[in-house]
Amino acid sequence: MVGVDFVEGMLQLGQLKLRARGERRVRLLAGDALALPFADASFGCVASAFLLRNLADLEAGLAEMRRVTAPGGSVVALEITQPTLPGWRQAFRLYFHRVVPAVGALIARNREAYTYLPQSVDRFVTPVELARLMEAAGLRDVRVRRVGLGTVTIHVGRVGHADHSRAAARAHAAA
Known about the structure:
Blueprint: E1 2-5, H1 8-21, E2 27-30, E3 43-49, H2 58-67, E4 69-80, H3 88-108, H4 111-123, H5 127-136, E5 140-147, E6 152-158, H6 161-174
Parallel strand pairs: 1-2, 3-4
Antiparallel strand pairs: 4-6, 5-6
């Protein structure tokens, strides 16, 4: 198992947590989600949690996740989303935009990071739009599941067996 993060501090914290649990099967690497340091079709599953809304180029990030996923494998993305239930949407928005930054300021002493969080979710694409972008990146059978009263959405797409052979042929022809 391999974990990748762009921020060295996150990798250091992750390494400390892995050591504390005695976990030796996970390798953590510094890397950019827009240029993953892996060969094509390296993994049976590529998963991200709360990453996509932070990418400078969402389409390129999805294409890169697809590139390193083996035929028959899955790309899974977990993202915070705006709930759609009437009443709950307004309550969540109040909590997310007012309470979360205040708690972040008190506990983490970083109001800015916890103000950025709801703003980034507000700017991010809807679950339906993300599903379309995953399909445009070449993922098949994209499924969307809302959990946590709609505050979190799980997207799963599959890499088809013919997808990699077509991509490899294009890359070979361009070389």
